[in-house]
Structures are given as C-alpha cells and as structure tokens.
Amino acid sequence: MIGAEVHKRIEWFNPWLVHPERARLLVEEKVPANYVHRRVENIRAQKDRACLVVGPRQAGKSTMIWQLLRPLAPDLLFLNMEDPLIRAGFSSAVDLAGFLREKLPAVRAVFIDEAQHMKEAGLFVKGLTDAKLGLILWVTGSSSFHLRSKTRESLAGRATRERILPFSYNELMLHTSPSNAIEKRHAGGRISEHLRLYGGYPAVYLAGSADEKMSILGDLVDGLILRDASDQYHIERVDAYRKLLALLARQVGSQVNFSELASICNVDAGTVRSYVEIMEESHIVKEVRPFAEGKRREITLAPKMFFIDNGIRNQLLNDFSGDMSLRRDRGPLLENWAFTEIYKHVPFQASVRFWRTRGGAEVDFVIERGRNVFAVEVKAAGLKRAGPGRSVRSFIDAYRPERVAFLNETLEATVRQDKTEIDFVTPEGFSGWLLGNVV
After folding, report:
1. Residue 279 phi/psi, 5° resolution?
2. Which of 108, 235, 276, 343 would be 229's cystine partner, CB 3.0–4.6 Å?
3. What are phi and psi of 432, to 5 degrees?
4. What is the distance between the alpha carbons of residues 371 and 390, in angstroms, rounded to a whole number?
C-alpha cells in the first residue's frame, strides 16, 4: 500500500494528475522557451520496453524527455528517485505496478528520473517491463553503473540505451539557424570557440556573460567532485581525486602513466585506476586505448585520457583566456574538442582509439564501426598545403581506412592516397564530416 504522504508527494511532482485541464501547460513549463533540439530525439519509444537515457548531470536528459512527453499529458507519471520519500514508497517494481493498475489506469507513460539513486535500478526496470502494463517507460541516470542491478539481472530485449552529453556543434548550429553563408560562417566560428573554451553544458552555453559561464562551471565541478565522489561513490580521499582530475586536465592528448599519477596523488596505482573508472562512469573523462590490430611494433599499454567537456577541463585548470592563437594549450584544446565531437556522434557499438608505433608514427583518433575504419588527425597550427604526412601515410598503408579527416584551423581540401580520401576540414566542418562519413 502506498501511504498518504507518498500520494501527496506524487501529486506535488505530477500536478497534471490533479488539474488535468492544465496538463499541457504544466508539462510545457518543464521545457525552456529556448530549447535546443537534441540529435537523439528520434528515439522510438515502445510499450513495455524501457528507454534508458544516461549522461552527466545537467546535460539535458530530463529536458529532452519532457519535450518528447508533452503530447501525452496528462496521462503520464513522473517519479524523481532523488526524492527519498518517492524512493521509499516505490521500493520495488511490484509496488509501482500495483499502484498504476489500481490508482492510475489511464497513465500511458512513466518517467523515472535520477535512477542512479535506487539500490536496484536494473532489477526495478526489468520488473516494470515484465509487468506488461502497456506503458512507455523512460529512465534517466547520470551513471550507467547504477542502472546495473546488483543481482546482474539482464535488460537484454527489455531496454534500449541512449546517451545525452553536453551540446554538440551540430545541435547548436541547427538551433542558431543562420540565414545565409556569411551568418553561418560567423555562427560556426562562435560556436566552435565556445565549445573549446566553455564547453557545451546547456546552462553554460545559454548563460549570458563569461563570468556567469565560469560560475556555473565552478558549481558543476564542485558537484561532480564533492557530491558524486564523496556522497555517491563514498571516496574518502576527495583531495586526491581532485588532484588527479587536475593532472589529467593538464595531460589531455598525452599517454598517461598510472603509477606516476599515483605517486603524485599519494595513493596507490589501484586507487588511481578505480578513480578513473568512477570518472568515466560519471561522464567526466574517457579513457582511449591504443589501436593495435596485432601489429607488434605498436605501443599497446598506456592509454590517453580525454574530457567529455572542454569547459570542465578548463575549469579544473582555471584557465579561460579567450584568444586561441595565444594559448599554449591550443593544440590539446582542439584535440580534446575533436574527441568530444567524435564521442557525441559515434554509436555505442563503435570504438574510438589512437594509433602510435614505437617508431614514432601516430594518428590521433582511429574510429572503428563494424568493419569500417576511419582516422582523424588534429593539427592546431595552420596548414598551407594538403598533404597527409608520414604518420598518416603509414596508417593508410597498414589499414586502408575508409576516409581520413585532417582537422585544422585554416585549410579545406580533399586529396587521395591510393583508395583513401583525405579530407582537410576546419572546426566548422568537422562535425559535418563525422555525420556524413562515420555516423
């Protein structure tokens, strides 16, 4: 039985259940007037099948789902699992299924937000889909780790998984909708620079001044470190965790040595590895492994670390100097931004790695999708002529990639080596290259 207090809390979170005549307006209030449409909005929600939307906190997961749920008002139920009373009232899928059948038979969709706060999120979602209520089920979580049941119950065949990350370049360009080529070029440059400097978190992008953007980023970093690290993951050495993040921010694009990082942070290498796993689960950083394909001459041990958002990286270093041409880290900034765009666009099934040989040949990113291989090389310095260079030539000779992108600041051109086309693209054209060739 669901108690009176839980009933009141449900009505507080779902006012359209009490005032169905105002339902559309009440749900529309959840979506900002300047809403930026997300690339994954074409999700096909199916009855009795969950759609899990994972990604960092404040990246826009809930806002996107509210946008998709607007046509279903008032026949929807929202459960915020960050609220302890809601969490206690619906401790099992059986409780929720019984409540829906008895009290809310007209409901057509259930939205479970912040599922990472549940002890058995995976088992709960499995039980709800198995109840065959004929509902559309949306579930969000800031960490995919917390959507896995401790009992290892499988959601195979019961759920699809989508990822929402901070805004991508293409999402923001579509939102800007420039009317002509000149406006498009100016808008593209402005958006590209913003993403490299302040990143793409919605609140940061939509903020007015630079000071406001930095303040929001500061709050995000404090939340990611202090709240998630200490409260959610129960990290005792938050100081070491924060120091590790700052070290990784300085080493973007470089191979990392876990033993060396452990020594600097005054913890053991195993602790550093566990911290990195937590950072990945929290969508702060992503480990990129080497691309080997059995070639013995290639380095197969040390990974590289990239940040999911440039703004978080720059906030950790407290460096927002805006003139890209004068920044000493303009190369790592561009490379990390290139990674964020790749990561936002490629599907879950694709892999992103880097290639480096003991002889010094290196390609920044290698993307595998099925049997297709693509390569991306990043050069922050201006290029005067279109040529692949020794490293890219070596990679093409060894692996025959479908296409290669040379991301740079100035040159747009296409050349060919054997059967591989090499596209020289600027930041304004890079995301389009990904969409046209890799996605």
Report:
1. -60, -40
2. 235
3. -65, -35
4. 24
Residue 97 shares a structural domain with residue 179: no
> What's 323-344 look like in SS3?
CHHHCCCHHHHHHHHHHHHHHH
What is the domain extent for residue 295?
Answer: 169-437
Query: Quick one: 192 and 65 in the same domain?
Result: no
Total number of domains in the chain: 2
Q: Is 400 helix (H, G, I), strand (E, B) or coil?
A: coil
Instruction: Please say which residue of 140, 163, 186 terminates a domain.
Output: 163
The CA distances from residue 66 to 40, 135, 164, 317, in Å, are: 14, 16, 14, 35
44 shares its domain with 192: no
Look at residues 147, 156, 91 and name the one whose alpha carbon lies nearest to residue 115.
147
Q: Say how far apart CA 238 and CA 221 lie, in whole Å.
A: 13
Residues 120 and 187 in one domain: no
Q: What is the dihedral of CA 395, 396, 398, 399, to 10 degrees?
A: 100
Q: Which of 129, 163, 197 is the last residue of a domain?
A: 163
Judge if 194 and 90 occupy the same domain.
no
Provide the H-helix boundaries in 293-370.
310-317, 330-345
Instruction: Encode pLDDT of 285-298 as tens digits.
Output: 999 999 976 555 56
- In this structure, the answer to whether residues 228 and 337 fall within a common structural domain is yes
Distance CA 309, CA 247 (A): 16
pLDDT value at residue 146: 52
Q: Is the peptide bond before 347 cis (omega within 30 degrees of 0)?
A: no
Q: For residue range 261-272, what is the model confidence (pLDDT) as tens digits?
A: 999 999 999 999
Distance CA 439, CA 346 (A): 6
User: How many Å apart are CA 331 and CA 409, to the nearest integer?
Assistant: 11
Instruction: Examine the domain organization and report whether 188 and 308 are in the same domain.
Output: yes
CATH number of domain containing 127: 3.40.50
Name the stretches of the chain with pLDDT < 50: 150-151
Note if the pTM is more than 0.90. yes
Distance CA 133, CA 149 (A): 21
